[in-house]
Amino acid sequence: MTLVDTNVLIDVATDDPNWADWSQQNLELASLHRPLLINEIIYAELSVGFDRIEELDAFLGGAGIEMHYLPTAALFLAGKAFAQYRRAGGQRSNILADFFVGAHAVVSRLPLLTRDARKYQTYFPGIELIVPP
Q1: pLDDT digit string (tens) for 7-31?
Q2: Cα(117)–Cα(122) distance, rounded to whole angstroms?
Q3: Residue 61, CA distances (Å) to 47, 64, 65, 77 in order
Q4: Alpha-helical regions (H) of 1-133
Q5: What is the pLDDT of residue 92?
């Protein structure tokens, strides 16, 4: 199973001129080896770009992406990692969602397909990432 970060799905959904090709290729490659997953946080972030729930569900279904809910241990770890970020001087308060995603990948031992390697590597050492070169 591979957890897919919101940015990768947005690239594909919007046909991003810089990232759509990379994201689509890596989604397809990952799907050859294991199921593609999102969690409820990624679902909520992705929903911003869709007018109707049916459209979002059709997009995810067409991509073969399944829902995998956050384990309680991941929720706890996300809070601790976010607290570490704030203690280290992190000023942004709107990135807690990223910590939920990283913690989910770590606790469930899932590789994470993302374009945001730095933050995940910093706060979740040992996380397995699929990222651009």
Answers
A1: 999 999 999 999 999 999 999 999 9
A2: 9
A3: 14, 5, 6, 29
A4: 6-14, 20-33, 40-47, 53-62, 72-87, 96-107, 117-123
A5: 82
pLDDT 10s digits, 53-91: 999 999 999 999 999 999 999 999 999 999 999 999 998
Domain residue spans in the chain? 2-130
- Dist CA 131 CA 7 (whole Å): 11
- pTM score of the predicted model: 0.94
Averaged pLDDT for residues 109-127: 95
- The class of domain 2-130 in CATH terms is alpha beta
pLDDT the model gives residue 94: 74
Distance, CA of 67 to CA of 24 (rounded, Å) = 19
